[in-house]
Amino acid sequence: SYLAVANLRTTGGSYDISSVIYQWNGTAFAVLQAIPTHAATDWEYFSIAGRSYLAVANLVAGSSYDTDSTVYLWNGTVFLPAQSIATHGAMDWEYFAINGTSYLAVGQLQQL
């Protein structure tokens, strides 16, 4: 079992902060991986053709809402970047499938 935590900002106010993936070790969740993020607001897990993915919604980088959000692919040990997607104040990801076709929708704070 895994737990992905989206971290918005540091105690000093910086939006550049790692978000953390935890793995259940039988008695507690232990850090598996820290992933650099920019005011992360959401993680979305999904699986396509037996492959596991995590998408992170990055809200802001510096003072700009124009920041990429990233889809990560599980390689059996850790999550590796698979695709970068231009977003504008990303707040939420939702994965869904219709008639065998996969979709990933993003909710954004800013218009394109």
Task: Report on the architecture of this protein.
By secondary structure, the chain is mostly beta strands. The protein has no helices and nine strands. The protein has strands at residues 2-5, 16-24, 29-38, 40-48, 51-58, 66-74, 79-88, 90-98, 101-108. The strands form three sheets. Strands 4-5-6-7 form a four-stranded antiparallel beta sheet, with no helix packed on it. A hairpin with a 4-residue loop joins strand 6 (66-74) and strand 7. The radius of gyration is 14 Å and the shape is flat. 23% of the residues are buried. The model has no long low-confidence stretch (mean pLDDT 95).
What structural class do the secondary elements suggest?
mainly beta
Mean pLDDT: 95
Major sheet description: 4 strands, antiparallel
Overall strand count = 9
| Spatial order of the strands forming the largest sheet | 4-5-6-7
Strand content: over 45%
Order of H and E elements = EEEEEEEEE
Summarize the structure.
By secondary structure, this protein is mainly beta. Strand 6 and strand 7 form a beta hairpin. The relative contact order is 0.18.
